[in-house]
User: Fold this.
Amino acid sequence: MSTIFGQLVIGPPGSGKTTYCTEMGKFLESLGRKVAIINIDPANENMGYKPAVDVSELVKHEEVMKTLKLGPNGALVYCIEFLEKNIEWLIRKVLNFKNHYVLIDCPGQVELYTHHESMNKITEKLSTNLVRLCCVNLMDSHHCSDPGKYLSSLMVCTITMLQLGLPHVNVMTKLDDMKRFKDKLDFNIDFYTDVLNLDYLLERLNEDNVVPQYVKLNEALISLVQDYSLVTFVPLDISNKTLLLNVKNAVDKANGYIFGGNEPQDVQSLLACAVGAVSETERTASLETYM
Assistant:
């Protein structure tokens, strides 16, 4: 049985998951890959792509809300648990796309990735059926404008990386929006993407929170993030091909596609991309246009 490679695209509401799947799918197709986008968000109504597989064929979010009298979040949890119990349905659907690269568009409810078990069990089942996934966790760049929101994003990313048994690439999306709030940034972009010395962030947090309990809490959270030292971000403006290529390269290394992927005919050009055609100089020059 041949291996299927792909991405599990997660992130909070508004972080750009569906847009990412649409544009990354087009970008990969332009490189010669066959792409299948799989939607497992039953509440996703505004897809900019035609899904190869849609979870609403199995369970409908609105019907669950009406039938079980659940709110939107409770119904979403039920739908994912239902998908876990009927995982063979998803596996059969995915395995129909051999020789395709899959992008899995996921719900935006972060609890599903931080402490709920269903998503972890779903990915485990896919992995045992030779579906090699990398978790692509999206974070809106606007969170950098608020020290508290940025720290919260770091915590969510850290917990998610520990909870889901997958290789991870954290992506900072909507980089083009940074120009609008750059005056609110306390540090340059590398501080936020590379997650540099967070003691400086702690100083900013403590300036805003004068209550002693908050000071201790901030210290504990900063210490937790730094002790694990797991989180960095790959910056992305979805309209910038250089940054798209940079994300693709990071994901290809994480899920092993560069070692076992079925390359299309134009092998040389794709290999140039896979091994890192974007130099650090090009990356820096590209990021400077946003600041």
Remarks:
- Residues 147-163 form the longest helix (17 residues).
- The radius of gyration is 19 Å.
- Residues 265-276 have pLDDT under 50 and may be disordered.
